[in-house]
Every structure is written in structure tokens, then in C-alpha cells.
Design goal:
The protein is built from eleven helices and 24 strands. By secondary structure, it is an alpha+beta fold. The strands form five sheets. Strands 1, 2, 3, 6, 7, 9, 20, 21 and 22 form a nine-stranded mixed β-sheet that branches. An eight-stranded antiparallel β-sheet has the order 13-14-12-11-17-18-10-19. The structure holds zinc ion (ZN). Zinc ion binds next to loops.
Length: about 475
């Protein structure tokens, strides 16, 4: 009954996702009534109106999040997703905002991350209620508009006193079930960097975001004489770094400054060991140039405390656990400001470790190295035990539909599951699949969309039922 109900909704589900995809909802600067930009607000309004038409009770939470609810009972279970998307970027073979359906694939920015799953959740909940099943809990689909830029929307939902679910999942990662997400600490660190001496760094900048390994950094260096320029150019030719790292010097042979460009390899902040940090290449190179005073001190200190390491060893925080693996550290962005050099360090620590066990030795090592902490943000780890009712219920739903065993995964962290208790990431990507999330031609097979609808409906029954 439930299963055939869902199959009968196939066309409606596809059309609903298409409608949602046609609203460009890339996050942007605040405008009146739209704290995260006009696009995200418009997609929020559209989704609330759509859900209301389907028969849900709805609420707009301070123009940054919304919810749609059905059913009765003192307790509520939730599906969490987001309507904001990352910029479309270049290289698409179709209109990224067209919601095009081609050869059984639905194309569009956000189709899988994460508008599709939000729309599927609405239909899955409706199918459950329409099929006349008796549930003892209410079912709420909660959608935010700031996931890609910090999840402040869900923070607002919680702070606004909106009801928290007794159990829930967020289909914004992969199957089977992610029951462990590492803790995240993001630091902005700085050291004095006043130029002195004939050879001195005038500008220094690199990186795109704190959660991406810095792939390139450029330094403009003033030189007192051509001899110095020649020496730097020769040193660059002779420099040998790790595979994927390089240093190049741009100098016309006569000017009074050279540009040093160090390159590494980008990687996601949760897997920095797959990248090469460009600032480590630059620091290793510059340390050999005999820069004076504060500037020389910075490059030497950086090489000694961080360098090419991604496990925090020299910072005294190398650690790991069986559930979630080793601590990782990612160097993301560097720049100069008011006589200081500033860089970010994004640390992901194991789920069974307390934040203090990381910050204690870390802050000590930084202080001893002369590094100041200018800013810090933290998100606690998430761990839901394998034997919990939530995990068991989702495992059953997944296995019932796919016939596969539902194993548990640990990730570097950062889904909506962290924004409120009793939530884990569950779907929507099946093991081994790649649907170009955050890339050009983001797409999703309609068959998988429907498989997700069946799994979500089963999960809702398991969580909201007896
Ligand atoms: Zn997402």
C-alpha cells in the first residue's frame, strides 16, 4: 500500500523538484527580509507554499528556515535538509537552473544537494499519512537556507525555541548511516610580520576557504639588489618539496622585487592528507632565504609547528580513535593585515575525545611558538551509538528497501545532524555513486530519487510509528 502510493507519486515528485531547482538559491549578502540573500529566501517561500498546498502545517522561522508538519501526538520526528546551493560554476552541458530531465536523469544545481531530498521528504511523509498508517508521532520536514555557508539557519531554528525532534535524519551525505562526525575547530592564528632589512615580504596571500587545503600562495618580495634576486631564483630552481608541491620565482632580472608563487594540491578540509599545503612549500623555501626578524621568524615557526603535517604532531595534538580515525589539521587561507600574518587552521578531532583534550596542548604549543589566536569557532563531535533506537530504525528502513546491510560510517564532520540532538546523516547517495555534488552537471537518476522516496517513507514509519 505505502509502496504503491509512492510509486504513483513519481511524476509529481519529479515536477516538484524541477520547480524547486528553477529558483537560483545561491547564498549571498543580506537584503531586507532575506538574511542570506534573495535567492535562498525565495526558495524558502516557494517550498513553504508548496508544502501548504500538499496539506502540511507550515511555518517560516525568521526568514532563514522553515518547517512543514503533518500528524498528531506529543512527540515529533524530523527530516532535515537545505534549500541553499553552492554557485553553479562553469562547464555545464545544460542550464543549471532549468531542471532538465534527460535520459532518466534530472539535472540542476542542488538536485541532490539538497533540494531533491527536501522535496522527496515532503512526498514520503505525505504518502505515509495518505496510506492511513497509524503513527504516534508528528512528522516534520525542516529546511534551512544557510547550510553551505555555515548552517546558521539551524542555529537560529534552535535559538528561536522551535521544537526539537525526538529522532530524525538529514539526507545530505550518503548511505548507509553516518553515526559519527568528528568535532571541528577552526582557528584564525597570527604572528607579527613587520618587514625589516633589504629583502622583505611586501604582500602574501593564498587559499580560498578555511575548509580547503591551500593550493596556491603568492608572496611579493622586495630585493635590495639584483644579486639577491638571482639568489632567490636559483634557490627556487634547486628547491625540492613533496610530490605535488612546487615553488616558482617570477623576476625579470632587473626590477627591485620578485614574486614567489608556491603551489600545492587542494583537498577537502576533512581529508587534508590528500592535499599538499602551499604555505608549507612557501615556508620551507623562505626559511632558507635568511629573511630577518619577524618575517623570518614566522616562516621558521610555521615550518616547525605545522609545515606539511596534517595530523597535528608537532602541535602536540596527534590522536585518533577506532570509531572515527585520526585527528586532521588543514591550513586554508593566509594573508597580511596591519603588520601581522594571519592564517587559518581547521582541525577535525575524533568523536570520543573532548574539545579540551585538543585545545589544551594546542594552545600551549601555539603560545610557546609565539602564535596568537585571533579567532576560534567550534562544533562538537557527533556520535550516536550503533545500538541506539535511531540507528536501528534507519538500518531496518534501508535494508527493507535495498536488501542490503546498512553499515555505519564516520566522517570528518559538518552536516545538519550536528545542529540538534538525536539526528544522524542518512543518504541520499548510495555507496559507490557519484553525482557531481558541488561540480558542473549535478544530476540525479530518477530511479535513485524514487529509491530514496521509498527509504525515507520506511524510515518515517519506523521513527514515528509504534
Ligand atoms: Zn548539502
Amino acid at each position: 500500500m505505502l509502496s504503491s502510493k509512492i510509486d504513483s507519486m513519481k511524476n509529481d515528485i519529479v515536477v516538484a523538484i524541477q520547480g524547486c531547482l528553477r529558483i537560483p538559491s545561491v547564498g549571498g549578502d543580506p537584503v531586507e527580509g532575506a538574511p542570506y540573500g534573495a535567492g535562498p529566501r525565495r526558495s524558502l517561500d516557494w517550498t513553504l507554499a508548496f508544502a501548504e498546498k500538499m496539506g502540511f502545517r507550515t511555518k517560516n522561522v525568521d526568514n532563514v528556515a522553515g518547517w512543514a508538519e503533518m500528524g498528531e501526538g506529543p512527540e515529533m520526528v524530523a527530516v532535515l535538509g537545505h534549500l541553499d546551493v553552492v554557485p553553479e560554476g562553469d562547464g555545464w552541458s545544460v542550464d543549471p537552473w532549468g531542471g532538465e530531465l534527460k535520459d532518466g536523469m534530472l539535472y540542476g544545481r542542488g538536485v541532490i544537494d539538497n533540494k531533491g531530498p527536501v522535496m522527496i521528504a515532503l512526498f514520503a511523509a505525505k504518502a505515509v499519512f495518505d496510506s492511513g498508517m497509524k503513527l504516534k508521532r508528528r512528522v516534520r520536514v525542516i529546511f534551512g537556507t544557510n547550510e553551505e555557508r555555515g548552517s546558521k539557519c539551524m542555529k537560529r531554528y534552535v535559538e528561536a525555541g522551535e521544537e526539537l525532534p525526538v529522532a530524525g535524519f538529514t539526507p545530505d551525505a550518503e548511505y548507509p548511516i553516518i553515526n559519527a562526525e568528528k568535532g571541528i575547530l577552526t582557528y584564525t592564528l597570527s604572528m607579527p610580520f613587520t618587514p625589516s632589512g633589504g629583502m622583505r615580504v611586501l604582500s602574501l596571500s593564498g587559499g580560498v576557504a578555511s575548509n580547503v587545503v591551500m593550493a596556491e600562495v603568492r608572496a611579493e618580495v622586495a630585493i635590495p639588489d639584483p644579486e639577491c634576486g638571482r639568489r632567490i631564483a636559483d634557490a627556487a630552481t634547486a628547491w625540492k618539496g613533496p610530490e605535488g608541491g612546487s615553488v616558482k620565482v617570477d623576476w625579470d632580472g632587473s626590477g627591485d622585487r620578485v614574486t614567489v608563487v608556491a603551489k600545492g594540491r587542494p583537498a577537502h578540509g576533512s581529508t587534508p592528507e590528500k592535499g599538499v599545503n602551499a604555505l608549507a612549500c612557501l615556508s620551507d623555501f623562505m626559511s632558507g632565504l635568511r629573511l630577518r626578524d619577524e618575517q623570518g621568524d614566522f616562516f621558521r615557526a610555521f615550518s616547525r609547528l605545522v609545515g606539511f603535517e596534517t595530523d597535528g604532531r608537532s602541535l602536540g595534538i596527534a590522536m585518533g580513535d577506532e570509531v572515527s580515525g585520526p585527528l586532521t589539521a588543514c591550513v586554508g587561507v593566509v594573508g597580511l593585515n596591519a603588520g601581522r600574518v594571519r592564517f587559518t587552521l581547521n582541525i577535525r578531532y575524533p568523536v570520543t575525545v573532548s574539545e579540551d583534550a585538543v585545545t589544551g596542548p594546542l594552545l600551549r604549543a601555539l603560545a610557546e611558538g609565539g602564535v596568537s589566536v585571533d579567532g576560534a569557532e567550534s562544533a562538537a563531535p557527533l556520535f550516536v551509538p550503533p545500538e541506539s533506537r535511531l540507528v536501528k530504525a534507519l538500518q531496518k528502513a534501508y535494508s527493507d528497501v535495498t536488501g542490503e546491510e546498512a553499515g555505519l560510517l564516520a566522517i570528518g564532520g559538518g552536516t545538519y545532524a550536528k545542529s540538534m540532538p538525536n539526528v544522524v546523516a542518512f543518504g541520499p547517495v548510495f555507496p559507490g555513486q557519484s553525482y557531481r555534488v558541488h561540480e558542473e552537471d549535478e544530476r540525479w537518476a530518477v530511479d535513485d530519487i524514487m529509491k530514496n522516496a521509498h527509504i525515507m517513507a520506511r524510515a518515517i514509519v519506523e521513527l514515528a510509528g509504534e
